[in-house]
Amino acid sequence: MGDVWSGLGTWFHQVFVEQFDVWIAIGFFAQAMFSARFIIQWIASERAGRSVVPVAFWFFSIAGGGMLFVYALSRKDPVFIAGQGAGLLIYARNLWLIFRERKTALTNAS
């Protein structure tokens, strides 16, 4: 077990001290934004007493996914680029559908 902690300590030192640069900071911030969408969804579901996906979920998906996409580009990681790129299309499409539905509802209410 001591080897695990020693190895983890070495890894943390390498990432946060030896190799730390602005891209690592951007990557961690982007991941935090992307992860925040689940907290938002969880809170909204708890308040409603049922599973819901608030519009903020999709905005955080785009913000975090977009930043992770840029991070992946900087790292030249084709797997990460493809995954985040595809996700961005889905998130944007969901927002477009939501806004189209709201626009139709407003038009019909008038």
Question: Can you offer a commentary on this structure?
Answer:
The chain is 88% helix and 0% strand. By secondary structure, the protein is mainly alpha-helical. It has one domain. The N and C termini lie far apart (68 Å).
Topology:
Blueprint: H1 2-18, H2 22-48, H3 55-75, H4 78-109
Helix pairs in contact: 2-3, 3-4
List keywords for this structure.
single chain, 110 residues, mainly alpha, elongated
Could you say how many structural domains there are in total? 1
Question: In percent, how helical is the residue content?
Answer: over 70%
Q: How many separate helices?
A: 4
Shape estimate: elongated
What does the largest sheet look like? none
The number of strands is: 0
In short:
With 110 residues, the protein is mainly alpha-helical.
